[in-house]
Specification:
The chain is α+β, with helices and mostly antiparallel strands and about 160 residues long. The chain has two domains: about 90 residues, Arc Repressor Mutant, subunit A, CATH 1.10.10; about 70 residues, Dna Ligase, domain 1 (2-Layer Sandwich). Strands 1-3-2 form a three-stranded antiparallel β-sheet. Strands 5-4-6 form a three-stranded mixed β-sheet, with no helix packed on it. The longest helix has 22 residues. Helix content is about 50%, strand content about 15%. Helix 2 crosses helix 4. Strand 4 and strand 5 form a beta hairpin. The mean pLDDT is about 90. It binds zinc ion. The site of zinc ion has 8 residues, from helix 6.
Length: about 160
């Protein structure tokens, strides 16, 4: 099973969406989508802007936001609120990702969990039609855990020192 939809399929989906909703098929909208396809599957608006700046491609922020909203309506992207602070966008794939969010530094790691995806996709709920699921696991990343351990060791040493 391929996890990603092909770029051709995504471009066609967007074209169909724009045509069916009588939206204009402006070159800017397609350039923004092409840039999104170069980004990791989750990204921020800042990353998208940086990607466009790389090739000195200037479009207004309003156009970027407007296009992102259209891509959400087209079922190509969705919003992700992982740490409650930073808003990210996720390209919709066939496999659902589990996001490991570090409560200390805010770093987010993505892991694919096929068993969980299979389970959740087959899961039904009474009087509710599910569309997708989003899974976040909160904790502390390895590098923060190491720093905390070091800090604790220093604190213990200081306490011992102070007692002398
Ligand atoms: Zn961390």
């Amino acid at each position: 099973m391929t996890e990603q939809y092909s770029n051709t399929a995504i471009l066609k989906k967007f074209t169909d969406f724009l045509e069916s909703g009588s939206y204009r098929k402006t070159p800017e909208r397609f350039t923004i989508l092409e840039k999104i396809l170069l980004l990791p599957h989750t990204f921020t608006i800042e990353q998208l802007n940086d990607e466009m700046e790389k090739e000195s491609y200037h479009v207004s922020r309003a156009t970027v936001y407007n296009t992102v909203e259209l891509l959400i309506a087209a079922g190509i992207l969705r919003k992700l609120f992982l740490d409650g602070v930073q808003m990210k966008y996720e390209r919709i794939t066939k496999v659902s990702y589990t996001y490991l969010v570090c409560s200390s530094c805010g770093k987010i790691k993505e892991v694919k969990d096929y068993d969980l995806s299979a389970y959740m996709n087959a899961r039904t709920y009474n009087a509710f039609h599910s569309d997708h699921f989003s899974m976040c696991v909160y904790g502390v990343c390895n590098s923060c855990a190491r720093k905390q351990k070091k800090r604790n060791t220093v604190n213990v040493k200081q306490k011992i020192q102070n007692r002398k």
